[in-house]
What does this fold into?
Amino acid sequence: MTDVFLARLAGRTAAVTGSSSGNGRAIALALAAAGASVVCSDLQKSTKDGGYEANADRDTDDVIRANGGTAEYLDADASNARDVQAVVDRAVQAFGRLDIMVNNAGILNAPHTIVEETEAEFDRTMLINCKSVWLGCKSAITQMRRQDVVDGARGRIVNIASTGGLVGLPQAPAYCTAKGAVVNLTRQLAVDFSAERININAVCPGFLHTAMLRPLIDDPELNQLLREKTPWPELGHAEDVANATLFLASGNASWASGSILTIDGGYTAA
It folds into this structure.
């Protein structure tokens, strides 16, 4: 992290969905370290079992405060409109505005083809991985349009999609459908709101060390397969996604809108 990032986010306010574990936790910590006040939100305050987080026994907002940052936590279901609006409202009430919205919450089902996938599994995946982003963008944009321009923007939105939104992943039909929708929603919103100085971009992570992907990483055969398909010699970490998000959330990305940034060790380039 550079002094440029620290200067860019000092005094800014961010909200992060799914902030208790994995990518969301790393993103919230990075934004706070760069000077932003962060509203953390998730279904549960504690980290998920099986993750790779340092200080996993401490909640994200507690770690931020222990490191000298400013954070609040709100229980929120990212797929519920009222809860999402409450996250945005908390940011405005506590800190005066919402500069950065990171729509990160998501799930990954056990591997199966469309033949085995149930309608309920499809609906749940679309609800949490797609509708949650739609709701987060809707509430954030509504608020950001009311705000004055600061550091070149009324606000910045970063949607966490996936390489599964760009290419087909084996046995993940609903997941790829939802993440593909997030990618193109990001592009569409950039078309509508760039003129109002709202930056809207997405990050597409590859295979990372997170609790969600631990079953794949811990399986020797699947781990080897992932490594063979990823040109970079190692698999990624949540901090890699956090650093990319930090860039898109800062004034250093002031002319980026509708961009889809892959953080995947070359997986989608192979």
User: Anything to note?
Assistant: The longest strand covers residues 198-205.
